[in-house]
Amino acid sequence: MTPPAPSAAPAAPAPSAAGPAADPATAAGSAEVIDSAAIGESADIIDSADWPLWEVFVRSKAGLEHRHCGSLHASDARMALQHARDVYTRRQEGCSVWVVRSGQIVASDPDDKAMYFDPARDKVYRHPSFYRLPDAVEHM
């Protein structure tokens, strides 16, 4: 029994009539041409829109409160901090950045406003109208 003969190498494609620059596969050297429609169909590529939404809070100076300045999509907390730094503190206007997953924020219902804020009306002693300030105290 004789071994099978090695197969012939596939023939190279014929150059186009317009020359090598007209062929997109050779126009950029040996770079592969990627079809943008194929990228969207690939299951291996994770779309950034599928990443969770993160809320970004920046403190402008030490001693001040953090303020909500926007939202962004990131795959994890580390990436969210990096994106928040790049997007919201480009001009060194912050000294601290917080990122919180939007799904982790718990908020009160506006319909429950009375339950949360009306009890403060019962504590009138917290209002400064009950205190007499000395004349020496300025800027109050």
Automatic annotation (TrEMBL):
Bilayer-spanning residue ranges: none
A UniProt-annotated Pfam family: PaaB
Sequence ranges of Low complexity compositional bias: 8-24
Region described as Disordered: spans on this chain: 1-24
Name of this chain's protein: Phenylacetate-CoA oxygenase, PaaH subunit
